[in-house]
Design goal:
This protein is an all-alpha fold and 232 residues long. The protein is built from 14 helices and no strands.
């Protein structure tokens, strides 16, 4: 999947544009959203997305059977998010050199990668966020939930833009959340909505809880504005 390789090269050269910082966790979350979106739209499959077999390859390299994503494994022997981010590209390059495109390996990749991409397969933010709100641990894990949510939504949106899928009404509505958060907190620093909310929270978990409260407030505000326009 040449488009994926091109995207990875762009992220490697300038991670701030896509994922805020060189972080293996952010990269993994972003790619999960990106590839899940393409698979949902039918532009690729899990068995031909460009990363099939990488999970097994990393496990074999690390000689571990522990249930962890490839990002978690790389992080465990890299020491820091930045070091793991850089290590990923080294590992992925080695993987591509040794990759066997046989049908048997593709089949194995389907099983593992589908477990790794635990993200709702829906096309609108309302359904995605509704499912995550009900079971955040299932979809976002125990660490850095609001950061992971932000990265996955970014990947999800980028994939849809790349293939020319028009944004749904809820997606367009979500686009205004960033400016609303900036206005609410009086911040115009270029920080993402997740970083702003996290700054005013004790930790990532409180920030995620606060996000849903703020997003509901934002939606209710928009509904009120719509009613006022109709009344006027």
């Amino acid at each position: 999947m040449n488009k994926l390789y091109t995207l990875l090269q762009k992220i490697k050269e300038n991670p701030v544009i896509y994922i805020d910082k060189p972080s293996i966790t952010c990269l993994h979350s972003f790619l999960t959203g990106y590839l899940s979106s393409l698979i949902t739209l039918g532009f690729t499959t899990i068995g031909s997305c460009g990363m099939e077999g990488f999970q097994e390859w990393i496990q074999e390299r690390a000689k571990t059977n522990v249930t962890q994503s490839w990002a978690g494994i790389i992080l465990s022997y890299s020491g820091s998010e930045r070091a793991a981010f850089n290590r990923f590209f080294e590992e992925f390059e080695q993987f591509l050199k040794q990759k066997d495109d046989s049908k048997s390996q593709n089949s194995e990749g389907i099983s593992r990668l589908s477990e790794d991409m635990r993200f709702p397969r829906f096309d609108i933010y309302n359904e995605i966020l509704t499912n995550i709100k009900k079971r955040p641990g299932m979809y976002l894990g125990a660490n850095s939930p609001i950061t992971i949510l932000d990265m996955r939504l970014r990947g999800y949106s980028l994939a849809r833009r790349e293939v020319g899928v028009p944004p749904t009404e809820p997606e367009r509505e979500f686009e205004g959340f960033q400016s609303w958060i900036e206005e609410k907190y009086g911040i115009n620093s270029g920080q993402s909505w997740s970083k702003i909310i996290l700054f005013y929270s004790v930790d990532e978990h409180e920030a995620l809880h606060k996000f849903f409260e703020l997003f509901e407030e934002y939606l209710n505000r928009n509904k009120s504005l719509d009613v006022d326009e109709i009344s006027g």
